C-alpha cells in the first residue's frame, strides 16, 4: 500500500478557535463519556490552570494538545504512552481525555526535574491517578512496559523515533493511533522512521498541522492490523 509522503501528505487543519475554544468543543460532548464518575472535566480551576500554564519550548503547543485530546477521546483509547513529558502540559490535556474514556496514560521523560515538575502539575489538576510519569531513558523504559497499548505520542529525540516505535510496536493493538511530532522541520532526522511507516501495509498515515504558531506538523498514524 502506498502512503502519502511528507511533500504530499500535509493536511493543514485551519482551526480558527483558540485553545480554550478547542477544549470547550470536546467538553460539549456528553459529560463523563466513558467514565460515569467524571461530571465536569473542565471545571473553573482546571481550565484556569491549563490556560495559565507556563509553557516552555519543549511543551506541546495549545493547538497540538487540543488535537491530541480529540484523537484520544474520539478513538476511545484506554492505554496510552507519551514519549517526552517535559513539564506535563500535553500530558494534562491528554489526561483529561483518558479520564473521560476511563483509560490511563504513561508518560516517559529522562530529565528528573521535568519529571518532578510534571508530577506536581498533574497533582494540581487531579490527574495523578490517570497519568503516570516514569523517569528514565525511553529506550530502556519502553521495552519493559507490560501489556498492550492503543495510543502513542512521540515527541522526544528525533533521531530515535524509529527506536521508540520499534520498542512499542509489538504491544500495539489494531486500531492504535500513533502521533509523531515535528515531522516537517525535523523530517530528515527521522527519515528511517518515516520510511518504515510509509512502506508498511499495516499502517496508514497523514501529516497534519493543527497549530500554525510553530510552522510544523504531526504525523498521525493508524494501525490497520
Automatic annotation (TrEMBL):
Pfam families associated with the record: Methyltransf_3 (PF01596)
Enzyme class (EC, first level): transferase
GO molecular function: O-methyltransferase activity
Annotated PROSITE patterns: SAM_OMT_I
Keyword Signal appears in the UniProt entry: yes
Keywords from the named record: Methyltransferase, S-adenosyl-L-methionine, Signal, Transferase
GO biological process: methylation
E.C. no: 2.1.1.-
Entry annotated with the keyword Nucleotide-binding: no
PANTHER family: CATECHOL O-METHYLTRANSFERASE 1-RELATED
Protein name, as recorded: Putative O-methyltransferase
Lineage, broadest ranks: Bacteria, Pseudomonadati, Planctomycetota, Planctomycetia, Pirellulales
Amino acid at each position: 500500500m502506498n502512503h502519502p509522503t511528507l511533500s504530499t501528505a500535509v493536511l493543514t487543519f485551519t482551526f480558527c478557535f483558540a485553545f480554550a475554544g478547542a477544549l470547550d468543543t470536546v467538553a460539549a460532548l456528553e459529560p463523563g463519556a466513558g467514565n460515569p464518575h467524571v461530571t465536569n472535566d473542565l471545571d473553573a480551576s482546571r481550565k484556569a490552570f491549563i490556560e495559565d500554564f507556563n509553557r516552555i519550548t519543549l511543551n506541546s503547543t495549545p493547538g497540538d494538545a487540543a488535537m491530541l485530546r480529540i484523537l484520544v477521546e474520539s478513538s476511545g483509547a484506554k492505554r496510552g504512552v507519551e514519549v517526552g513529558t517535559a513539564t506535563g502540559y500535553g500530558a494534562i490535556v491528554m489526561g483529561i481525555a483518558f479520564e473521560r474514556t476511563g483509560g490511563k496514560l504513561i508518560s516517559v521523560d529522562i530529565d528528573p526535574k521535568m519529571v518532578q515538575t510534571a508530577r506536581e502539575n498533574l497533582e494540581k489538576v487531579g490527574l495523578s491517578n490517570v497519568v503516570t510519569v516514569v523517569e528514565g531513558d525511553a529506550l530502556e523504559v519502553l521495552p519493559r512496559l507490560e501489556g498492550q497499548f492503543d495510543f502513542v505520542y512521540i515527541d522526544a529525540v528525533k533521531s530515535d523515533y524509529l527506536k521508540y516505535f520499534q520498542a512499542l510496536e509489538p504491544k500495539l493493538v489494531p486500531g492504535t493511533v500513533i502521533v509523531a511530532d515535528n515531522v516537517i522541520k525535523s523530517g530528515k532526522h527521522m527519515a528511517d522512521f518515516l520510511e518504515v511507516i510509509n512502506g508498511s501495509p499495516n499502517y496508514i498515515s497523514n501529516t497534519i498541522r493543527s497549530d500554525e504558531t510553530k510552522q510544523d506538523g504531526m504525523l498521525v498514524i493508524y494501525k490497520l492490523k
